[in-house]
């Protein structure tokens, strides 16, 4: 635990059903506060079920606990984080935006889902623009900058409609042109990483349009459950323009199959990633983690107690509405879902092999398509 401190933004300790936080460094915007808020809501939802804990939490993006630096995984310091990749050992936890990201006009996940579902019904998939849509900030991210070349240029049509999001101007405009639900107007949506994974993933998946998912090494709690060809269409990160064009051409020529991918991806986001299951994931994760502690957690000398009121009362007019919308107002009336057994090595390999085969087949079809006169 002490070795994990150099990675952490805060330390959160639960003792006897009460939570305490020791802050080490300031997180970007309110990532740390809304993460702590989420854990407090878990404790309200399942009172008395969250065990005594002692966790170190990092609020930046890429994983930092390098597997290559430790002879065995159990030697690594336990660091909770929003995402990881195969080379890192960070513990993946739901990101802060499930409880809202008010700085960019994003409401908590449950009311946001309701807005997206209403928008999905307003414009049926066949009536949407027959292109692939993405809107975001490409600055400082080379892969996003490269993808912007897939806009119509020099008479070349890549079937992509890509828009640069200037957050400074967007805030001056009251975020009126940044509504996520109103972006569900295209038949295809593109997901692409930023500094690591992007919180936009779940909103893009919920849009009922097939997601063209630029293959990425980063995993969060959602992407680990997605299946290529079922929930999304993979896009080759090394040939993005050609890959996007082929995916859109294929989808427009096979609308029934394409629409099914969109529906299955959206259903995964709305059902499998509902807040009920997010909270159950959190409870199971923290319970299993607590079983590994070899000492009884105690309150750090510099920690302060936090509760729903201590975070919500001092919040300003920008942040308080998200807290009120995401507050758990009563305890759950049922037990959490049953934790399934872990995949065996053989099962994990079988799934990885199937996905790799699918990717190879799609890449082969893309190249054959590009070679036609």
UniProtKB/TrEMBL annotation:
Highest taxon above the source species: Eukaryota
Domain Glycosyl transferase CAP10, chain residue ranges per copy: 49-296
Pfam families xrefs: Glyco_transf_90
Matches recorded under InterPro entries: CAP10 (IPR006598), O-Glucosyltr/Glycosyltrsf_90 (IPR051091)
Keyword Protein biosynthesis tagged: no
Coiled coil: 345-372
Keywords: Coiled coil
Name recorded for this polypeptide: Glycosyl transferase CAP10 domain-containing protein
């Amino acid at each position: 635990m002490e070795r994990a401190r150099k990675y952490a933004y805060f330390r959160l300790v639960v003792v006897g059903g009460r939570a305490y936080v020791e802050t080490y460094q300031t997180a970007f915007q309110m990532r740390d506060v809304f993460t702590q808020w989420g854990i407090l809501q878990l404790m309200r939802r399942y009172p008395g079920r969250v065990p005594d804990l002692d966790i170190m939490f990092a609020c930046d993006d890429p994983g930092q606990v390098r597997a290559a630096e430790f002879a065995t995984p159990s030697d690594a310091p336990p660091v909770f984080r929003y995402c990881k990749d195969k080379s890192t050992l960070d513990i993946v936890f739901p990101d802060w935006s499930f409880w809202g990201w008010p700085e960019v006009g994003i409401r908590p996940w449950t009311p946001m889902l309701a807005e997206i579902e209403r928008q999905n019904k307003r414009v049926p998939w066949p009536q949407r623009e027959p292109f692939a849509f993405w809107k975001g900030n490409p600055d400082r991210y080379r892969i996003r900058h490269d993808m912007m070349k897939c806009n119509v240029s020099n008479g070349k049509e890549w079937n992509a409609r890509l828009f640069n999001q200037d957050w400074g101007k967007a805030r001056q405009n009251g975020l009126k042109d940044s509504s996520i639900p109103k972006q569900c107007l295209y038949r295809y949506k593109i997901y692409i990483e930023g500094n690591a994974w992007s919180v936009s993933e779940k909103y893009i998946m919920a849009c009922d349009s097939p997601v063209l998912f630029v293959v990425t090494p980063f995993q969060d709690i959602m992407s680990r459950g997605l299946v290529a060809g079922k929930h999304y269409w993979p896009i080759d990160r090394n040939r993005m323009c050609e890959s996007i064009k082929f995916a859109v051409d294929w989808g427009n020529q096979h609308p029934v199959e394409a629409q099914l991918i969109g529906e299955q991806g959206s259903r995964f986001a709305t059902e499998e990633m509902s807040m009920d299951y997010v909270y159950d994931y959190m409870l199971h994760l923290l319970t299993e983690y607590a079983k590994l502690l070899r000492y009884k957690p105690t309150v750090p000398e510099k920690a302060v107690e936090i509760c729903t009121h201590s975070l919500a009362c001092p919040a300003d007019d920008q942040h308080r509405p998200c807290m009120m919308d995401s507050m758990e107002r009563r305890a759950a009336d049922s037990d959490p879902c049953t934790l399934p057994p872990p995949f065996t090595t053989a099962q994990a390999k079988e799934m990885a092999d199937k996905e790799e085969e699918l990717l190879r087949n799609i890449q082969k079809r893309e190249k054959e398509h590009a070679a036609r006169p």
